[in-house]
Amino acid sequence: MSFTKAQERETYRRMQSIRQFEENAQRLYLAGKVPGACHCSIGQEAAIVGACMALRDDDYIVGTHRSHGHPIGKGAKLDPLMAELMGRTTGICKGRGGSMHLADGGVGILGESAIVGGGIPLAAGAGLSAQVRGTDQVALSFFGDGASNQGTFHETLNMAAVWKLPVIFFCENNRYAITTSVAKSHAQPDIAKRAAGYAIPGVIVDGQDVVAVYEATRTAVERARRGEGPTLIEAKTYRFDEHQVGLNIIGEPYRPDAEVQHYIKNQDPLEIFKKVLQKNGWSEADISAVEKEVTAAVAHSIEFAEASPLPDISEVYEHMYSNPINYPAAAVGARS
Amino acid sequence: MNTALQTQPAARQRMSYLDAIVQAQIEEMERDERVILMGEDLAIYGDGKVLSTFGAKRVWSTPISENSFCGLAVGAAMTGLRPIVALNIASFMYLASDQIINQASKLRYMTGGQMKVPAVFRCSMYYNSSIAAQHSDRPYPMFMNTPGLKVIAPTTPADMKGMLKAAVRDDDPVVVFEDSTLWTVKEEVPTDPDSLVPLGKADVKVKGTDVTVVAIAGCQKPALAAAQALKGEGISVEVVDPRTLVPLDKETIVKSVAKTGRLVLVDNAHRTCNAAAEIGAMVAEEGFGSLKKPIKRVSTPDVHIPFSPSLEKPLFATKESIIAAVKSLL
């Protein structure tokens, strides 16, 4: 079940895209060009891309406030994502969502929920919908270790298990919910073991190893498509950066610097996958070609975003309702 | 869509408000296979008939997980279904409110219009029946304060059937506040399955010239009784039923007040920031010039609903309290 040559290239391209997109997002945030908050997935690329590579284009995903990686991992174009970070009209959410909500419906993303655990039921609802409509689509919910302590996690796993919904519950366990460690907040630190309480498979996978994540997710996806129900996957991973760019943590550090440095040095998912590529016969030139392609795409997305206009206040009511009734005059026709 | 008012006199059938809720759902589920029903203990009261009419993939009897099954409905609505969620008792809306407010109401906007959430969240307001504070709330004001939702509170069997059907066919999330004090009210209801009552349109239930009474949900019943009694005393009351609380039909209300110059608002929700407060503020802004007297509210005070009937009954609007309010403006 390992990657074909073409999948290897696409996997590395998507992982590089998340890395370079976010390195630039951080830079632009610090330069004041990206308003709001900026939560990056650097260090977690293998978990995201490995999971997404196991899905079809018409499968659904639901993500989190750490939202840049999910659309890129599912194959979204970068231009509308970067424009959204800058709040432009050409943004994927027309400037209504921003960094925490890069939901690209074109690649099957139903939402990126900044309410922790809020997206988990949505994915199960998409699975229920596929079951009712009689398609073999599956839905994958990304969530973090923190979300596994929300009621929605437990309620939804139970319902998905009872009804054998085609859902993959995919926990990106990066060990810290902002400053709260799994050790201090989870009575059972292996989140996958909670699957036993709902009589579904619970799988722990090395979240820095994209091939392992892909294989584990593929198994869960096949099970879901066969109508056998959901799987809980826990990818043990690590975020290399602070919870969000520029976050000021007061007092004792919640994670030791030596731990952070260890992961950056020894557990970089891109470096790990690069070694796999080399072993599989990829030349430095081939690898570098992918990296350069991504660099150009990210640069293009920044140019695109900066050249795009900011939305005008007269458009603020747009997209509230599919079927507006008795809507304020300012909302309809104010643009003309 | 959902704006086609029944214009031809069509076949009618006498049914109760509760029957209308059941009939609307059955007709919509027969019409459109994307419509599903979800909820707890559906066999109880009206929905039992829906349960026995449709198979397992159309009716989902859920565990007691209000927040998450509402979330499932949102996810299903975004991917091609049109779920109706039955939340039974209105106080359960608080448990479900995270998914209804943070997801259902916001996802269309937050995705720049990429998504739509055609889901209906139904709940029934039980009160004045000694079931105490945790089962007796009328929480529509909280949902009126959430942009992105449509909030309806129909009060007659015909309105209930026509508006619930319109809600199912609407592409936006609609929250339906049913009033159990109206369950047994009966009237002739159109049988045409495509007869809809549009959302966002108030109805003048009784025409009058002296005082406008705008009554919300179950308050319609005592308001109509009060209007009838006052007629005998030569006082002409116009009774307006907003029917839809969001989006409010301001025009009909402002027009009525322009005619009468006096406004009584009757609302069994707690007084602070209730629907009456919003309508009162709206009239103060948009119809102040036609007011001959200050706006008067008959509302439930800001106290929890007690168990004992002797404590509970005086908290809700009655024919007498509405008559007194009307007379205070004359």
Distinct helical segment count of chain B: 12
Q: What structural class do helix, strand and pairing data of chain A support? A: alpha/beta
Total tally of structural domains of chain B: 2
Query: Mind telling me the CATH superfamily name of chain A?
Result: Thiamin diphosphate (ThDP)-binding fold, Pyr/PP domains
Q: How far apart are the termini of chain B?
A: 43 Å
CATH class of chain A: Alpha Beta
Number of strands of chain B: 14
Structural class of chain B: alpha/beta
Please, what is the average pLDDT of chain B? 96
Shape of chain B: globular
Task: Give the fraction of residues assigned to helices of chain B.
Answer: 25-40%
Oligomer: heterodimer
CATH class of the largest domain in chain B: Alpha Beta
Entry summary:
The complex is a heterodimer of chains A (336) and B (330). Chain A has one domain (5-315): Rossmann fold (3-Layer(aba) Sandwich).
Attribute tags:
heterodimer, A: 336 residues, alpha/beta, Rossmann fold, six-stranded parallel sheet, two-stranded antiparallel ribbon, 11 helices, 11% strand, globular, disordered C terminus, B: 330 residues, seven-stranded mixed sheet, five-stranded mixed sheet, 12 helices, 36% helix
Question: Can you describe what's shown?
Answer:
The complex is a heterodimer of chains A (336) and B (330). With 336 residues, chain A is α/β, with parallel strands linked by helices. Chain A has one domain (5-315): Thiamin diphosphate (ThDP)-binding fold, Pyr/PP domains (Rossmann fold, 3-Layer(aba) Sandwich), CATH 3.40.50.970. Helices cover 42% and strands 11% of the residues of chain A. Chain A is built from 11 helices and 8 strands. In chain A, the strands form 2 sheets. In chain A, strands 2-1-3-4-8-7 form a 6-stranded parallel sheet, sandwiched between helices. In chain A, a hairpin with a 2-residue loop joins strand 5 (176-177) and strand 6. Chain A is globular and about 50 Å long. By secondary structure, chain B is of the alpha/beta class. In chain B, strand 2, helix 2 and strand 3 (59-61) form a beta-alpha-beta unit. Chain B is globular. The chains are: A alpha/beta (336), B alpha/beta (330). Chains A and B meet through strand 2, helix 5 and helix 6 of A and helix 3, helix 4 and helix 5 of B.
